[in-house]
Amino acid sequence: MELLRALGVLAEPPTNEHVRIAKVLGLPAPPEPSAYHDLFLLQTYPFASVYLGPEGMMGGEAGDRVAGFWRALHMTPPTEPDHLCSLLALYVSLAEREAAEEDEASRALVASARGALLHEHVVSWVFPFLSKVRELGGVFYGDWSTMLEEAILAEIRANSKPRSLPLHLREAPGIPDPRTDGGEAFLTGLLAPIRSGMIVTRGDLAGAARRLDLGLRMGERQYILKALFSQDAGKVLEWFVDTAEGWAGRHEQQGPDLGEIAAFWEGRARATASLAMALLEDRSGWDDLRRDDATPAGSSASGDHELSGKS
Q: Does any domain span residue 221?
């Protein structure tokens, strides 16, 4: 539990305390605050709602569901109830309550709540997030993500296997088809991890522009994506086929440990790859994708409000 608590603290903006914690855990020295800012405020956000909400944004119904869990425990939700640090701290506090509880029935209730928190609000999203952190985070955050993944896997193995998928996943809509749902819905779905099965960052889109030899318009992700599609929808769809298949492989590797949760994420990624391949053959849905009417960079109408938007 102390390991989980310490690792959760390292998901917050770095302070002098982080140097001491890193040393105790055998991690490299923490990087400068700018590295944290680039990773956790611009690329991979440590908030459950970003990965579990159908809009791919912070807050929304997914955030409300996490806050509701706090209230169900008769606790006032913190300012950021779905932040990874908050969730891990709550998990540790429940474990401590469980260990201190003398009444067997009360102890069983706390244990049930702890298991529900782990399954519903942590395991449901954290492994794709940690995989992306390892890809982008450099030595310190790469080692941090590996250590945290191993610690959470140990908790999964120590808990009884849940009977069903987390509610977040059971109720999540699939990837929209631009031929029936429109181009805007499709673009939003591509950028919402729970719908597309993949995490697509600004850095990924900038890399795609370079790889595909397309012009890059910096701004919010949906703005960038619109601009790429307007230049060459075929190339961008091919890139999404490759990206989604890569993510499907990542999720598949987690199958032995995560079971149905890994299968859910793998299925979403494979569905995205299949849809992109279908669109390459059927161009009837391309018109909306190639419209060059992207909202100016930085506008709140661009549909990418992971940190700013509960709207």
A: yes
